[in-house]
Amino acid sequence: MSTKTFTCTLQVRWGDSDRLGHVNNTRFVEYLQEGRVQFLNAVLGGSERRGAAVVRKLTTDFLHPILDDSGPLTIELWITRVGTTSYGVRHVVTDRDGTVCAEAEALMVAFDLATSSSRPLDEHERGLLGEYLHVE
Questions:
Q1: Do 5 and 76 touch, CB atoms closer than 8 A?
Q2: In the record, what terms sit under GO molecular function (predicted)?
Q3: Backbone angles phi, psi at 86, to 5 degrees
Q4: pTM above 0.70, yes or no
Q5: What secondary structure, in 3-state letters, does the chain show?
Q6: Residue 113: pLDDT band by 50, 70, 90 thresholds?
Q7: pLDDT tens track for 53-87
Q8: How many Å apart are CA 95 and CA 93, to the nearest integer?
């Protein structure tokens, strides 16, 4: 089993912070999404069917505030489980000093755009996701 981890960086944008000078928690969720989209595009590619997925559940632990000067942020992602129609994605967000600011787990469900319903992951997708599978 491989233990690949996908890493990307994101900038903290000027408009992301609230009146207290902290990045608003809703922006954390946007950062998670941006990292997840980069990960899924890199791993599963951009075809319409392959990689189409929806977030079924998102659990986030906000551990340390992000400020305007905390960036660039690093987001590390890996797969925690692969099921028949779903898979788990773990996210760890760190600031420029390496402080963990958030940890999150997304339950993703493979989605058929034509029927607007879940679909089984095909063997190719399962293999690609499996390259990033970490057993925790």
A1: yes
A2: hydrolase activity
A3: -140, 165
A4: yes
A5: CCCCCEEEEECCCHHHECCCCEECHHHHHHHHHHHHHHHHHHHHCCCCCCCCEEEEEEEEEECCCCECCCCCEEEEEEEEEECCCEEEEEEEEECCCCCEEEEEEEEEEEEECCCCEECCCCHHHHHHHHCCECCC
A6: confident
A7: 999 999 999 999 999 999 999 999 999 999 999 99
A8: 7
Amino acid at 13: R
Phi, psi angle pair for 96, to nearest 5°: -65, -20
In the numeric block, the tokens 């951009």 are attached to 46
The encoded tokens of residue 27 equal 């922006």
Task: Establish how many alpha carbons lie within 13 A of residue 96's alpha carbon, considering only the half-sphere containing its beta carbon.
Answer: 9
The residue-averaged pLDDT of 10-32 equals: 91
| pLDDT confidence tier of residue 99, bands split at 50, 70 and 90 | very high
Please report, to the nearest 10 degrees, the dihedral formed by the alpha carbons of residues 119, 5, 133, 131 taken in order.
Answer: 80
Between CA 100 and CA 104 the distance in angstroms is 11
